[in-house]
């Protein structure tokens, strides 16, 4: 593929910049740039703005409200959105369940769910993992028993990101406990989070934030028409979804914006009276990181453009492993660059309403929580160990 930007790409970039300058609310970009907490309404407000513009689903077919952008355009949009400080688009609707409904859902499900997703009006969460069923996802136990025109669902989900403000959850459930292989007895259900019997409990993570939850399902009656595709074929749809999830996790646009932030900090901080960026050891670490970031970007563009078929089914896993490693190394170097000022844990300063004094420069405040937060990236969406197994099976047989 040609990796140079064409004059049309540059016109597109100017359009994106103009849109962001006009439509991205300043209070949101201020929060994002300062590394402050975003609440559900912050995420959804930005998604509604993108949805109104018709820019929320770059990879969806145009007939369903997608943008039909080229790989280069997707890359340009991501780059500009992160530089401008746009909140990231939560992937659960647009990148995960949306494509599953487009590919495997029936007409009624498409009509009911796709417009709300593509307009950014409906928030979704992913009910896959359970206590004891993370990497070994096919061992999941949440049961769905047919009762007339409903399924009755009982069980527990865990690590359910953003369940606390989601309207719907796509959920893997066991519909045939006697199936000869555990993968064969699983179905894919769409669950309205307002259904009686659902309880969401927060899990507060190490960095003091609330994004993940436990979800308890007790005799939850889900209309049978909310089954996607065929009963007991949910594993196939889940694998399709996980490929999209893992590709998205690489987050190249975000990596590039965070890398720029790293450069700014390294130019500002001093070592032996000189800018840190001139320190040969630090500069060498930055150079190595930049090479890996460029390689990640190219791999992502090969994936988006459909070239590089040699990687077969391994592509999303390669992107997930390398992308999350790069994210962690950027966060680590940002923290190193800030030095001891990254150590005080001023959690209150992460709140937009806080106006007290900070120990070091403002950019030091979110460095430690960001470093801690990124540890999770090599776990969610399937751990690095599991991705390496998938890559080796796909490439080595
Ligand atoms: C922040 C966060 C958000 C998440 N959000 C969601 C969500 O929204 N929805 C959802 O459904 N899930 C979510 N998850 C769950 C996530 O997908 C699981 O945590 C992940 O799949 C790992 O499962 P586990 O935590 O049970 O770890 P385990 O499977 O218990 O793994 C523990 C360790 O053992 C290793 N291991 C396990 N099996 C093997 C093997 N066969 N070979 C080699 N090593 C192995 C793992 O790599 C890991 O290092 C989230 C997780 C996190 C941390």
Question: How far apart, in Å, are the first and last alpha carbons?
Answer: 27 Å
Give the overall average pLDDT: 93
Backbone shape: globular
In percent, how much strand structure appears in the residues? 5-15%
Adjacency order of strands in the biggest sheet = 1-4-5-8
Number of helices: 12
Main sheet record: 4 strands, mixed
Bound compounds, each kind once, are: flavin-adenine dinucleotide
User: pLDDT below 50 for ≥5 consecutive residues: which ranges?
Assistant: none
Query: Structural class given helices, strands, pairing?
Result: alpha+beta
Residue share in helices? 40-55%
Characterization of the model:
This protein has 397 residues and is α+β, with helices and mostly antiparallel strands. Helix content is 46%, strand content 15%. The protein is built from twelve helices and ten strands. The protein has helices at residues 7-23, 26-33, 40-53, 71-84, 91-104, 107-118, 234-249, 252-268, 280-305, 315-338, 367-374, 384-396; strands at 124-127, 143-147, 150-158, 168-174, 186-192, 198-204, 210-223, 227-228, 270-271, 274-275. The strands form three sheets. Strands 1-4-5-8 form a four-stranded mixed beta sheet. Strand 9 (270-271) and strand 10 form a beta hairpin. Helix 5 runs antiparallel to helix 6 (107-118) and helix 9 (280-305) runs antiparallel to helix 10. The longest helix is centred in the last third of the chain and has 26 residues, at 280-305. The radius of gyration is 22 Å and the shape is globular. The two termini are 27 Å apart. The structure holds flavin-adenine dinucleotide.
């Amino acid at each position: 593929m040609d990796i140079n930007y064409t004059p049309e790409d540059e016109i597109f970039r100017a359009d994106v910049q103009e849109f962001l300058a006009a439509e991205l609310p300043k209070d949101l970009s201020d929060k994002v740039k300062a590394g402050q907490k975003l609440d559900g309404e912050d995420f959804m407000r930005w998604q509604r703005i993108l949805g109104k513009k018709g820019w929320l689903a770059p990879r969806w077919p145009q007939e369903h409200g997608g943008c039909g952008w080229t790989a280069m355009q997707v890359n340009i949009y991501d780059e500009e959105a992160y530089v401008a400080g746009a909140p990231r688009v939560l992937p659960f609707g647009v990148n995960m369940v949306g494509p599953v409904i487009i590919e495997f859902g029936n007409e009624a499900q498409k009509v009911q769910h796709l417009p709300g997703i593509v307009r950014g009006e409906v928030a979704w969460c992913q009910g896959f993992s359970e206590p004891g069923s993370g990497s070994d996802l096919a061992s999941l136990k949440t049961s769905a028993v047919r009762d007339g025109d409903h399924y009755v669902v009982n069980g527990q989900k865990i690590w359910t990101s953003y369940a606390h403000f989601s309207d719907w959850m796509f959920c893997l459930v066991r519909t045939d406990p006697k199936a000869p292989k555990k993968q064969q007895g699983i179905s894919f259900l769409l669950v309205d989070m307002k259904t009686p019997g659902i309880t969401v409990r927060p899990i507060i993570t190490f960095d003091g934030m609330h994004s993940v939850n436990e979800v308890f399902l007790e005799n939850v009656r889900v209309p049978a028409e909310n089954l996607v595709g065929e009963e007991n074929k949910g594993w196939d749809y889940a694998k399709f979804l996980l490929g999209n999830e893992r590709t998205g996790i690489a987050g190249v646009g975000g990596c590039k914006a965070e890398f720029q932030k790293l450069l700014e900090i390294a130019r500002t901080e001093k070592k032996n009276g000189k800018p840190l960026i001139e320190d040969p050891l630090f500069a060498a670490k930055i150079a190595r990181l930049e090479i890996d970031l460029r390689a990640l970007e190219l791999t992502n563009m090969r994936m988006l453009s459909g070239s590089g078929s040699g990687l077969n089914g391994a592509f999303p896993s390669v992107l997930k492993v390398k992308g999350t490693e790069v994210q962690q190394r950027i966060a680590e170097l940002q923290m190193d660059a800030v030095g001891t000022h990254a150590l005080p844990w001023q959690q209150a300063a992460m709140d937009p309403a806080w106006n007290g004094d900070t120990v070091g420069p403002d950019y030091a405040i979110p460095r430690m929580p960001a470093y801690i937060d990124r540890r999770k990236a090599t776990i969610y969406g399937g751990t690095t160990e599991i991705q390496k197994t998938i890559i080796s099976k796909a490439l080595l047989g």
